[in-house]
């Protein structure tokens, strides 16, 4: 696939998102979801790293998304049959089923089963799209449509628990990032409880940090934990990369701590102490394998390491990411107190 076609499908994918989140009709929202799905499948198939998995990965993604879209469409049709007494009586249940379909689309636990399997076989750039861009529409539709706190709490707790516990035993970096994405999905769902602005802050910071990590892994062509022990990077670049990893885990005083701090504070104000406790405990578990990734960077002494000049040429933004990770929290604190 040439660059023009890549750009065409990516713009088509963004168009699907814009149609879904700006439409006043649920049918147009469903159509936007379908455009987004059909545009992402050719992007998946443009995976130059693991060509033998083309059909398997795209077929898995298509089946999951098509099944969830079918449930979503069925719920829309039934919710619009307001003249039917039985449908009106159970409208809350159909609304819950529609939201469940959205949870499946974004890979929230316990409907997460497809995320690790698909991400394991994708390139890093495609994984980045799946972890960030593809969560926008389901998240915003949930924000507009959810009305049951117990339902949301179930998916929040499931996502943060499965995301943290599932990543402990993984050695494949794709799967580690997949379970990390599931965990952060739980945090983003929690942010939807308060306001769209809280979610937007979390999403932007999560996207920036994920981009810094995944672009580095993509340029270094690393897919396994054991490869982290002999990366061709000097200590400055290793330190910058380690900061991004720890920031993704929400370790203070780095940038990734800001959205988690906001969510914990808001959950406490709303007296959701149990949910708060679970989310804090699972964050500590997440930090365990983030620390494992960071420590693995510094195992070999510097005199055995070579500097990969191509890496520097392709990572001109790494100093900016390092500055944001270190100074993000102090700068935001100053802005809040002004």
What does this structure look like?
Helices cover 75% and strands 0% of the residues. The model is unreliable at 302-309 (pLDDT under 50). It contains 16 helices and no strands. Helix 12 (235-248) packs across helix 16 (318-337). It has two domains: 1-106; 145-338, no CATH class. With 338 residues, it is mainly alpha-helical. The chain has helices spanning 3-22, 26-45, 54-79, 85-89, 91-106, 114-119, 124-131, 136-145, 149-168, 173-192, 196-220, 235-248, 257-269, 273-296, 309-314, 318-337. Residues 23-285 form the NADH:quinone oxidoreductase/Mrp antiporter transmembrane domain. It holds the Pfam family Proton_antipo_M.
Number of strands: 0
Please indicate the count of domains: 2
Query: How far apart, in Å, are the first and last alpha carbons?
Result: 50 Å
Low-confidence stretches: 302-309
Largest sheet: none
What string gives the helices and strands in order?
Answer: HHHHHHHHHHHHHHHH
| Backbone CA Rg | 20 Å
- Average pLDDT number: 83
Structural class: mainly alpha
Shape: globular
Strand content: under 5%
Specify the number of helices: 16
GO cellular component, one term: mitochondrial inner membrane
Catalytic activity: a ubiquinone + NADH + 5 H(+)(in) = a ubiquinol + NAD(+) + 4 H(+)(out)
EC number: 7.1.1.2
Transmembrane segments: 61-81, 93-115, 127-144, 150-169, 200-223, 235-258, 278-300, 320-337
